[in-house]
Amino acid sequence: MSSAATDDATKAPSKDGNSAPEQNKRSPSDFLKAVLGRPVNVRLSSGTDYRGVLACLDGYMNIAMEQTEEYVDGQLTSKYGDCFIRGNNGKQCLSERNFSINL
Amino acid sequence: MSNRILPLELIDKAIGSPIWILMRGQTELTGILRGFDDYVNLVLDDAVEYSPDPRDKSVVVKKELKAEILLNGNHVAVLVPGGTGPEDSMAARST
């Protein structure tokens, strides 16, 4: 009742987590596998955004990006061809985004 | 004994339902929890971020992220399963 089931992914939360169907559950590593090579938006905890194509990343969440654009307070401040973001920079979130449509 | 619930079990039960996340600092997020790992990195759908405006910290800016996101667990402070965000709790406080 409280959580209106909007699509099939939200219905029937299984009692035992381990047997949950794949589409119901997406761990962070599944997410990262899915967005590798895709356009992403990486936000540091400072609020700075880096938008580009995710080339690779490791267990520290160090990130290599291509065609990177740096946005401070939403304003484009610089562009980098290749860029490395050290993992401990307090990344806040990484979102998959279809730039050609949304931005 | 058997009615003891581990913290991560509680979060596991919240998968597929709305969750409210309070970060260290003033940022809060809501969204549908899709998954998490041992670091409490979170995958969220339909995430909405509530963060203080960089120029005027007393103003909270609401931003719909409009994508599936990965939230780094580093700054996660509190998780509220079923929580729908600061707007509801503000309303509750004012009554």
UniProtKB/TrEMBL annotation, chain A:
Residues 27-99 form the Sm domain. PROSITE patterns: SM. Pfam families: LSM. Gene3D superfamilies: 2.30.30.100. Residues 1-32 are annotated as: Disordered. GO terms for biological process: mRNA processing; RNA splicing; rRNA processing; tRNA processing. It is found in: Cytoplasm; Nucleus. Keywords: Cytoplasm, mRNA processing, mRNA splicing, Nucleus, Ribonucleoprotein, RNA-binding, rRNA processing, Spliceosome, tRNA processing. GO terms for cellular component: cytoplasm; Sm-like protein family complex; spliceosomal complex. One of its GO terms (molecular function) is RNA binding. InterPro entries: Lsm6/sSmF, LSM_dom_sf, Sm, Sm_dom_euk/arc. It comes from the Eukaryota. Its main location: cytoplasm. Belongs to the snRNP Sm proteins family. SmF/LSm6 subfamily. This is Sm domain-containing protein. It comes from Stephanodiscus triporus. The lineage of its organism: Eukaryota, Sar, Stramenopiles, Ochrophyta, Bacillariophyta.
UniProtKB/TrEMBL annotation, chain B:
LSm subunits form a heteromer with a doughnut shape. This is U6 snRNA-associated Sm-like protein LSm5. Its main location: nucleus. Keywords: mRNA processing, mRNA splicing, Nucleus, Ribonucleoprotein, RNA-binding, rRNA processing, Spliceosome, tRNA processing. The keyword Transferase does not apply. The lineage of its organism: Eukaryota, Sar, Stramenopiles, Ochrophyta, Bacillariophyta. Plays a role in U6 snRNP assembly and function. Binds to the 3' end of U6 snRNA. One of its GO terms (biological process) is rRNA processing. Residues 6-85 form the Sm domain. It is found in: Nucleus. One of its GO terms (cellular component) is U6 snRNP. GO terms for molecular function: RNA binding. Belongs to the snRNP Sm proteins family.
